[in-house]
Amino acid sequence: MAQAAPSVITDEMRALVGVDGPPVTLEVEKTNCRMFARAVGHTDLIFYDEDAARARGYRSIVAPPGFLGTPVFRPGVAAQGPPGAGRGYSVPYRRVLNGGTEYEYFPESDTICAGDTITAVSRISGFEETEGSLGPMLITTRETTYTNQRGKVVAKMRGTMIQY
Amino acid sequence: MTHQVFFEDVHAGDEIPQLRKNCSTQQLVQWAAASGDFYQIHYDRDFAQATGLKGLIVHGALKNAFLGQLLHDWIGEGGQIRRFGCSYRGMDEPGQDILCRGVVTKTYTLDGRHYVDLDIWTEKPDGKRTSPGTATVTLPGRA
Q1: What is the ipTM of this complex?
Q2: Which CATH architecture has domain B12-23+60-138?
Q3: A56 with A95, same domain?
């Protein structure tokens, strides 16, 4: 059994676990819903046509599965990027892999539709270290909560980032 | 839309209708614009090869979104996606089939809602699963 690599998880990082990051504003626009649906290859018209969406009881064009809005971009200001990215600590690994993503929806609360403004708040759920075929790795899991302009939680996203 | 699937007709072990994808490089650029992921390994072959890849690779999040479509198309107008996601375990290339599949693992009713849990994944033509994941949907009952 090889000696485990020394931990890269610092007290500073541990202190961030469970702490909400700054809120990020996301806009859900008709054209973005359509672009997302077209890129995936969706054929259901609720993702493209407002009348079709309304006929099915939705407020407007529906955000396709996995689309949670577009961060507001301003020239000269660093992109808001994926909520919660780069939160004031550094680790001695240079390479990053997106390990996976899970979306949770709350349709009884509300459905994400075009015209919505979403506030996303992200927190680190935990850090974990493993030794893989690529060497020692740090696995960071985050959970982001998406709340719409009506104050309804409409989605949560859990993401896994692998640094090695 | 396709016909409505009902909770009573779904059982553990059932496979849901497959969805076959095959990304053109144009589709990867559409996805980059739609998702805001502009990492060049997905559309700049020279860049991708300079990082040690054989060539362009399909975005993991796009494969996840394909699984979202797989579920959306299966559950019909009366169903709801509650949860879905996958791990990004292997790479897929543009121009090669990506088969999206799902198998029911559990069916149950809670607080009057009919839930279906599934294993979902994308696989390459050789059967290797590149994006294994799970999902929970609700379906209408016949009653």
Answers
A1: 0.96
A2: Roll (3.10)
A3: no
Q: Which domain holds residue A86?
A: 1-27+82-164
Type of residue found at A119: T
Average pLDDT over residues A123-147: 93
Domain identity same for A97 and A161: yes
Is the whole model's pTM more than 0.80, yes or no? yes
Tell me how many domains chain A contains.
Answer: 2
Q: Which residues contact B35 (CB under 8 A, 6 or more apart)?
A: A36, A39, B59, B61, B62
Contacts across the A-B interface (CB distance below 8 Å): 90
pLDDT score of A133:
81
Q: Do A39 and B81 touch (CB under 8 A)?
A: no
pLDDT tens sequence across A75-107: 877 654 444 445 668 888 888 888 999 999 999
Bridge partners of B137, per DSSP, are B81, B116
Q: Calculate mean pLDDT across residues B125-138.
A: 97
**Whether residue A91 sits in one domain with residue A146:** yes
B 89-128 near A (Cβ less than 8 A): none
Q: Which amino acid is at A64?
A: P
- Chain A interface, best mutation among B23, B26, B27, B35, by max A CB count within 10 A: B35
Give the nearest chain B residue to A100 (CA atoms): B87
Name the DSSP letter for residue A66.
T
CA distance A20 to chain B (A): 22
